[in-house]
Amino acid sequence: MTRVATDAICYRDAYLGAVEARVMAIEDAEDGPLVVLDRTVFYPGGGGQPSDRGLMLRAGDGRSWTVAGAKKDGSSIVHALETSPDGPPTVGDRVRVDLDWARRLSLMRTHTALHALCGVVWRDHGALVTGGNMEPGSGRMDFEFETMSGDLVESIEATVNAELAMSRDVRVSVLPRDEAFAIPDLVRTKVNLLPAGIEEIRTVEIVGLDLQADGGTHVANTREVGRIRVTGYESKGRINKRIRIALEDPA
Ligand SMILES: [Zn+2]
Fold first, then answer.
1. What is the distance in A from the centroid of ligand 1 to the CA of 1?
2. Please, which residues have CB within 8 angstroms of residue 151's CB and are 6 or more apart in sequence?
3. Given 3-state DSSP classes, what are the helix, strand and coil percentages for the chain, each rounded to the nearest 5?
4. Which end of the chain has the least Cβ crowding within 10 Å, N or C?
5. What is the pLDDT along the chain (251 residues), one digit of tens a residue?
6. Cα 104 to averaged position of ligand 1 atoms, centre (Å)
7. What's the CA-to-centroid distance between 91 and ligand 1, angstroms?
Protein backbone atom coordinates (compact mmCIF):
# COMPACT_ATOMS: atom_id res chain seq x y z
CA MET A 1 0.00 0.00 0.00
CA THR A 2 1.34 3.41 -0.96
CA ARG A 3 2.03 5.34 2.19
CA VAL A 4 0.86 8.91 2.04
CA ALA A 5 0.97 11.27 5.01
CA THR A 6 -2.55 12.09 6.14
CA ASP A 7 -3.30 15.58 7.47
CA ALA A 8 -4.84 14.59 10.81
CA ILE A 9 -7.19 17.47 11.55
CA CYS A 10 -8.43 16.10 14.91
CA TYR A 11 -5.18 17.07 16.63
CA ARG A 12 -5.71 20.78 15.96
CA ASP A 13 -9.51 20.95 15.66
CA ALA A 14 -11.37 18.33 17.68
CA TYR A 15 -14.72 19.91 16.80
CA LEU A 16 -14.59 19.39 13.04
CA GLY A 17 -16.95 16.50 12.33
CA ALA A 18 -16.62 16.21 8.54
CA VAL A 19 -14.19 17.10 5.76
CA GLU A 20 -13.76 16.71 2.01
CA ALA A 21 -10.75 14.64 1.04
CA ARG A 22 -9.11 12.65 -1.75
CA VAL A 23 -8.49 8.91 -1.77
CA MET A 24 -4.71 8.41 -1.92
CA ALA A 25 -4.36 4.63 -1.49
CA ILE A 26 -6.52 1.54 -1.11
CA GLU A 27 -5.78 -1.98 -0.03
CA ASP A 28 -8.15 -4.92 0.11
CA ALA A 29 -8.25 -6.58 3.51
CA GLU A 30 -10.27 -9.52 4.77
CA ASP A 31 -12.90 -7.38 6.53
CA GLY A 32 -13.15 -4.74 3.80
CA PRO A 33 -11.13 -2.07 2.04
CA LEU A 34 -8.46 -0.03 3.87
CA VAL A 35 -8.39 3.55 2.62
CA VAL A 36 -5.81 6.32 3.10
CA LEU A 37 -6.98 9.90 2.49
CA ASP A 38 -4.95 13.08 2.08
CA ARG A 39 -6.75 14.44 5.16
CA THR A 40 -9.29 13.29 7.67
CA VAL A 41 -11.22 14.18 10.80
CA PHE A 42 -11.02 10.60 12.10
CA TYR A 43 -9.09 10.00 15.34
CA PRO A 44 -6.99 6.88 14.74
CA GLY A 45 -7.19 5.58 18.32
CA GLY A 46 -4.52 5.51 21.00
CA GLY A 47 -3.88 6.59 24.57
CA GLY A 48 -6.95 4.68 25.73
CA GLN A 49 -9.32 6.48 23.36
CA PRO A 50 -10.86 4.25 20.68
CA SER A 51 -10.83 5.34 17.04
CA ASP A 52 -13.81 7.10 15.50
CA ARG A 53 -16.51 5.54 13.40
CA GLY A 54 -18.60 7.13 10.69
CA LEU A 55 -19.26 7.34 6.96
CA MET A 56 -17.34 7.91 3.75
CA LEU A 57 -19.39 9.42 0.90
CA ARG A 58 -18.22 9.70 -2.71
CA ALA A 59 -18.98 13.07 -4.27
CA GLY A 60 -19.29 11.72 -7.83
CA ASP A 61 -22.15 9.25 -7.40
CA GLY A 62 -23.31 9.58 -3.80
CA ARG A 63 -22.20 6.07 -2.86
CA SER A 64 -21.28 5.65 0.77
CA TRP A 65 -19.35 3.27 2.98
CA THR A 66 -19.46 2.67 6.69
CA VAL A 67 -16.11 3.45 8.32
CA ALA A 68 -15.81 0.85 11.07
CA GLY A 69 -12.61 2.29 12.53
CA ALA A 70 -9.32 3.99 11.78
CA LYS A 71 -5.73 3.44 12.78
CA LYS A 72 -2.37 5.06 12.45
CA ASP A 73 0.21 3.50 10.15
CA GLY A 74 3.37 5.61 10.13
CA SER A 75 2.25 9.05 9.02
CA SER A 76 -0.92 7.71 7.38
CA ILE A 77 -4.34 7.29 8.90
CA VAL A 78 -5.97 4.16 7.50
CA HIS A 79 -9.79 4.00 7.39
CA ALA A 80 -11.28 0.51 7.64
CA LEU A 81 -14.41 0.39 5.45
CA GLU A 82 -17.12 -2.23 5.67
CA THR A 83 -17.48 -4.28 2.49
CA SER A 84 -20.11 -2.84 0.15
CA PRO A 85 -21.87 -4.55 -2.80
CA ASP A 86 -20.84 -1.49 -4.84
CA GLY A 87 -17.18 -2.36 -4.33
CA PRO A 88 -14.49 -0.12 -2.84
CA PRO A 89 -13.79 3.52 -3.75
CA THR A 90 -11.00 4.25 -6.24
CA VAL A 91 -7.69 6.09 -5.84
CA GLY A 92 -8.27 9.71 -6.81
CA ASP A 93 -11.94 9.76 -5.75
CA ARG A 94 -13.24 12.88 -4.05
CA VAL A 95 -14.97 11.85 -0.86
CA ARG A 96 -16.39 13.35 2.28
CA VAL A 97 -15.78 11.68 5.65
CA ASP A 98 -18.34 12.19 8.39
CA LEU A 99 -17.81 11.19 11.99
CA ASP A 100 -20.41 9.54 14.16
CA TRP A 101 -20.41 12.86 15.98
CA ALA A 102 -22.49 11.85 19.02
CA ARG A 103 -20.01 9.07 19.74
CA ARG A 104 -16.95 11.28 19.23
CA LEU A 105 -18.32 14.08 21.42
CA SER A 106 -19.07 11.56 24.16
CA LEU A 107 -15.48 10.30 23.90
CA MET A 108 -14.16 13.89 24.08
CA ARG A 109 -16.20 14.53 27.24
CA THR A 110 -15.16 11.19 28.76
CA HIS A 111 -11.49 11.79 27.92
CA THR A 112 -11.60 15.25 29.50
CA ALA A 113 -13.31 13.82 32.60
CA LEU A 114 -10.48 11.29 32.96
CA HIS A 115 -7.94 14.13 32.81
CA ALA A 116 -9.84 15.94 35.58
CA LEU A 117 -9.78 12.75 37.66
CA CYS A 118 -6.09 12.31 36.98
CA GLY A 119 -5.41 15.96 37.89
CA VAL A 120 -7.31 15.77 41.18
CA VAL A 121 -5.71 12.46 42.22
CA TRP A 122 -2.25 13.83 41.44
CA ARG A 123 -2.76 17.25 43.06
CA ASP A 124 -4.51 16.04 46.22
CA HIS A 125 -2.93 12.60 46.71
CA GLY A 126 0.29 12.58 44.67
CA ALA A 127 -0.72 9.36 42.95
CA LEU A 128 0.75 8.54 39.54
CA VAL A 129 -1.31 7.26 36.62
CA THR A 130 -0.22 3.94 35.19
CA GLY A 131 -2.89 3.44 32.54
CA GLY A 132 -6.39 4.14 31.39
CA ASN A 133 -9.07 3.21 28.93
CA MET A 134 -12.43 4.57 27.82
CA GLU A 135 -15.59 4.01 25.86
CA PRO A 136 -18.14 6.68 25.02
CA GLY A 137 -19.56 7.77 28.39
CA SER A 138 -17.36 5.72 30.71
CA GLY A 139 -13.75 4.98 31.47
CA ARG A 140 -11.21 3.82 34.00
CA MET A 141 -7.83 4.93 35.26
CA ASP A 142 -5.18 2.97 37.11
CA PHE A 143 -3.05 4.68 39.75
CA GLU A 144 -0.17 3.91 42.04
CA PHE A 145 -2.35 4.80 44.97
CA GLU A 146 -1.65 2.74 48.05
CA THR A 147 -3.92 4.74 50.38
CA MET A 148 -7.06 4.60 48.21
CA SER A 149 -10.27 3.77 50.09
CA GLY A 150 -14.03 4.01 49.59
CA ASP A 151 -14.26 7.25 51.57
CA LEU A 152 -11.44 8.76 49.60
CA VAL A 153 -13.02 7.78 46.30
CA GLU A 154 -16.26 9.49 47.35
CA SER A 155 -14.43 12.71 48.13
CA ILE A 156 -12.51 12.45 44.85
CA GLU A 157 -15.81 12.25 42.97
CA ALA A 158 -17.05 15.42 44.68
CA THR A 159 -13.77 17.25 44.01
CA VAL A 160 -13.73 16.25 40.34
CA ASN A 161 -17.30 17.50 39.92
CA ALA A 162 -16.43 20.79 41.63
CA GLU A 163 -13.44 21.23 39.29
CA LEU A 164 -15.52 20.44 36.19
CA ALA A 165 -18.15 22.97 37.31
CA MET A 166 -15.48 25.70 37.44
CA SER A 167 -15.64 25.99 33.62
CA ARG A 168 -11.92 25.52 33.18
CA ASP A 169 -10.59 25.94 29.63
CA VAL A 170 -8.85 22.98 28.00
CA ARG A 171 -5.83 24.03 25.90
CA VAL A 172 -3.88 22.01 23.39
CA SER A 173 -0.25 22.95 22.62
CA VAL A 174 2.56 21.43 20.62
CA LEU A 175 5.93 21.94 22.33
CA PRO A 176 9.49 21.18 21.26
CA ARG A 177 10.62 18.01 23.05
CA ASP A 178 13.13 19.84 25.31
CA GLU A 179 10.54 22.35 26.44
CA ALA A 180 8.07 19.56 27.21
CA PHE A 181 10.68 17.68 29.26
CA ALA A 182 11.28 20.83 31.31
CA ILE A 183 7.71 20.61 32.70
CA PRO A 184 8.21 18.45 35.80
CA ASP A 185 4.70 17.02 36.08
CA LEU A 186 4.60 15.77 32.51
CA VAL A 187 6.89 12.95 33.60
CA ARG A 188 4.03 11.30 35.46
CA THR A 189 2.40 10.56 32.14
CA LYS A 190 5.49 8.75 30.95
CA VAL A 191 6.59 11.36 28.42
CA ASN A 192 10.05 9.91 28.96
CA LEU A 193 8.89 6.70 27.26
CA LEU A 194 8.29 8.50 23.96
CA PRO A 195 10.69 7.36 21.25
CA ALA A 196 13.78 9.51 20.73
CA GLY A 197 12.72 10.41 17.18
CA ILE A 198 9.71 12.44 18.28
CA GLU A 199 10.67 16.12 18.05
CA GLU A 200 7.43 17.67 19.23
CA ILE A 201 5.16 16.78 22.09
CA ARG A 202 1.49 17.60 22.19
CA THR A 203 0.21 18.67 25.57
CA VAL A 204 -3.34 18.98 26.84
CA GLU A 205 -3.95 21.33 29.76
CA ILE A 206 -7.03 21.76 31.90
CA VAL A 207 -6.04 25.24 32.90
CA GLY A 208 -5.36 25.37 36.63
CA LEU A 209 -5.79 21.64 37.18
CA ASP A 210 -3.94 19.25 34.89
CA LEU A 211 -1.23 19.20 32.23
CA GLN A 212 -0.33 16.05 30.29
CA ALA A 213 1.40 14.86 27.18
CA ASP A 214 -1.51 13.51 25.19
CA GLY A 215 -2.65 12.51 21.72
CA GLY A 216 -6.41 12.34 22.21
CA THR A 217 -9.39 14.60 21.56
CA HIS A 218 -10.96 16.68 24.33
CA VAL A 219 -13.70 19.25 24.80
CA ALA A 220 -12.68 22.93 24.99
CA ASN A 221 -14.06 23.62 28.47
CA THR A 222 -14.81 21.42 31.47
CA ARG A 223 -18.39 22.65 31.64
CA GLU A 224 -19.10 20.55 28.53
CA VAL A 225 -18.31 17.41 30.52
CA GLY A 226 -21.07 17.98 33.06
CA ARG A 227 -20.86 15.75 36.13
CA ILE A 228 -19.30 12.35 36.64
CA ARG A 229 -20.04 9.43 38.93
CA VAL A 230 -17.48 7.01 40.31
CA THR A 231 -19.00 3.67 39.36
CA GLY A 232 -16.42 1.43 40.98
CA TYR A 233 -12.92 0.99 42.30
CA GLU A 234 -10.71 -2.03 42.66
CA SER A 235 -7.38 -3.03 44.09
CA LYS A 236 -5.07 -4.52 41.49
CA GLY A 237 -2.52 -5.23 44.22
CA ARG A 238 -1.21 -3.41 47.28
CA ILE A 239 -0.23 -0.30 45.33
CA ASN A 240 -2.09 -0.42 42.03
CA LYS A 241 -5.72 0.73 42.18
CA ARG A 242 -8.36 1.24 39.53
CA ILE A 243 -11.10 3.88 39.55
CA ARG A 244 -14.06 3.62 37.16
CA ILE A 245 -16.13 6.64 36.20
CA ALA A 246 -19.13 7.41 34.01
CA LEU A 247 -20.61 10.65 32.70
CA GLU A 248 -23.82 11.47 34.55
CA ASP A 249 -25.34 12.56 31.24
CA PRO A 250 -23.65 10.37 28.60
CA ALA A 251 -25.58 11.74 25.59
ZN1 LIG B 1 -5.67 12.00 27.55
1. 31
2. none
3. 25, 40, 35
4. C
5. 667 899 999 999 999 999 999 999 999 988 899 999 999 999 999 989 999 999 999 999 999 999 999 999 999 999 999 998 889 999 999 999 999 999 999 999 999 999 999 999 999 999 999 889 999 999 999 999 999 999 999 999 999 999 999 999 999 999 998 888 888 777 665 555 566 677 888 999 999 999 988 889 999 999 999 999 999 999 999 999 999 999 999 87
6. 14
7. 34
